[in-house]
Amino acid sequence: MKHIVKIMTLLVGISALWFGLLMTSMVPSSHTLLLPIYFITCLGCYGLLMVGVGLMRFPTCPQEALLLQQDIIEAKDYLKQRGVDVCSE
Question: What distance in Å separates the CA atoms of residue 1 and residue 5, rounded to the nearest whole number?
């Protein structure tokens, strides 16, 4: 519930700033009308950046990889015992 309140507060704050810029002539209206598009574009770029950083920092787990390989071998043996043709590529 706290995240919803944070998101709504941020959304209301940005909307108030945008509305305030529309009402004042501090920024030309042609630029002000494009601010939501710029905001969404920046938000998308930030999201892509965070995904990229997350992928670069993704930890490798050699011990877990070995356990996964053991599980795969056990599953193949189990399926072979049940008569299922398991391709060993």
Answer: 7
Query: Which tokens hold the place of 69?
Result: 């390989």
pLDDT band at 11 (very low <50, low <70, confident <90, very high): confident
Predicted pLDDT of residue 68: 92
d(C-alpha 48, C-alpha 40), whole Å = 12
- What does R_g of the chain's alpha carbons equal in angstroms? 26
Do the Cβ atoms of 86 and 74 come closer than 8 Å?
A: no
Residue 82 three-state SS: coil
Rounded Cα–Cα distance for residues 68 and 72 (Å): 6
Is the pTM higher than 0.70? The answer reads no
Residue 84's pLDDT band, with cuts at 50, 70 and 90, is confident
